[in-house]
Amino acid sequence: MNYISNLLIILSLVSICLSQNLSSSSSSSLECIPGISGVNCTFNHNVTGYVPAYAHGGYVMFWGNFGTTHDGLSVLIGGTSCSIFVAYEWMIKCYTGPLTENTFYNVTVTQNGITWFQDNYYRYQTNCVKGQSLNGYCQCTTGFTGELCDIESSPYIITISSSSIDGGHVLADGWFGQDPQIGSLSILIGNKKLRIVQISPTHFSGVAPQGNGIHDITIYNSTTNQLLFTGINLYQYDSSLCYGDCFANGICNNGVCECFYPWTGPYCFEFSSCQCPQI
């Protein structure tokens, strides 16, 4: 009996030890998903962008991933505390005092015992004349450039539609001045002038001359004849298109208009007065 009792005690102790070892092994081998770290897989927050305050201070919004728990939340900009106003899973808003130098500052965000740090990350908002400040830089509106978006760009074309080899209507996007007027700019396709019909700061419509192949587009100041823009190989004539798209009086078939009755002509723009006999 004593032998059996001792054996049962030994087996019980072995079972307890094995259970503890398995539990310890399971805990130490726990793998966390991306963005999670630590023994207990604690959420690891990060900042992805911000909307800065001006140099004299104000509210700053940091965008990122901050989770739903914000124990001990603190934000430091250049070592100076940014007073927390509100914190969400996707945004932290805090109030900072004046920053004296127009330079980049370190940012530290601490919560739940975990610290996120980025060197030379934050710069206060500058007075963007024609644009908005994002992450310490001015994001200029179309047509303006410079650190403060205070320099007007020279005219340029971003995109322009093709026309048939007989020419035709075209649309273009780009920048053509704050208050452009018809006649203020001369636009050439190759060495042939494009006739502008309507123009605004960011668009124009016009009529392209006859041509074929691929050509450069140039923009000149009509008054001074100064070259303002050159778009290398920017314009292409398309032989599969029809002039005026057959003016909706026919179907364009690989560059040839097939007219609906009673329209006729190479572009279906002529009205046939023929009185066909009735059968």
Largest beta sheet: strand ordering: 15-16-19-18-17-20-21
Unreliable spans are: 22-29
In terms of quaternary structure, what is this? Answer: single chain
Q: What is the end-to-end distance? A: 125 Å
Order of helices and strands: HEEEEEEEEEEEEEEEEEEEEEEEEE
Helix content: under 10%
The gyration radius over C-alpha positions equals 35 Å
Mean pLDDT: 85
Number of strands: 25
- Helices, by number, come to 1
Instruction: Summarize the biggest pleated sheet.
Output: 7 strands, antiparallel
Query: How much beta, percentage-wise?
Result: 35-45%
Structural class, from secondary structure content?
Answer: mainly beta
The best one-word shape is: elongated
Your description of this structure?
- With 279 residues, the chain is mainly beta.
- 10% of the residues lie in helices and 45% in strands.
- The strands form eight sheets. Strands 15-16-19-18-17-20-21 form a seven-stranded antiparallel β-sheet, with no helix packed on it. A four-stranded antiparallel β-sheet has the order 3-4-8-7, with no helix packed on it.
- Strand 7 (83-87) and strand 8 form a beta hairpin.
- Mean pLDDT is 85; it is low at 22-29.
Entry keywords:
1 helix; elongated; four-stranded antiparallel sheet; 279 residues; mainly beta
Short description:
By secondary structure, the protein is mainly beta. The chain has one helix at 2-28, and strands spanning 36-37, 42-43, 46-51, 58-65, 74-77, 80-81, 83-87, 91-96, 105-111, 114-122, 131-134, 137-140, 144-145, 151-152, 156-160, 168-175, 185-189, 192-199, 203-208, 214-221, 227-236, 250-253, 256-259, 263-264, 270-271.
